[in-house]
Amino acid sequence: MFASRKIILLLLVAIMAIAAVNASRDNEYDLRCKDRNISCGNGQELEQNRKCCRYSNSCSNGWSQEKCLASNCCKSKGGDNGDNDDFQLRCKDQDIDCGSGQTLMKNRKCCRYSDKCGGNWSQKKCLASNCCEDKH
Fold first, then answer.
1. Domain segments of the chain: what residues?
2. 78-112 burial string, b = 16+ CB within 10 Å, else e?
3. What range does the record give for the signal peptide (predicted)?
């Protein structure tokens, strides 16, 4: 009898965990990002002082949104940046509400990151993906 209660408890915990994961997918979206661990192709070398990521959109209100995130950019040995080895990065908002007297710009997304793309590519360190504007 004790074993069956234990199994039921484990099943309930598993169901709750699955529900929590599905709920956390609200307000997520993909960004194109360069893999910071990738090696460069033939005729290219690593540009060590750059961080690189292609963002979908940007919005800026006093801070500039660079199109960079992961650590390594490739450049041709002649000096141009390569455009290889992109991957999808899933991004999740931690704070989607606007301040008092502001409203969400529904057609814009922006995100500020820590300087990390995790090895499992489940980066969820966004500070915001919605831009706010004053209500009119």
1. 2-134
2. eeeebeebeeebebbbeeeebeeeeeeeeeebbbe
3. 1-23
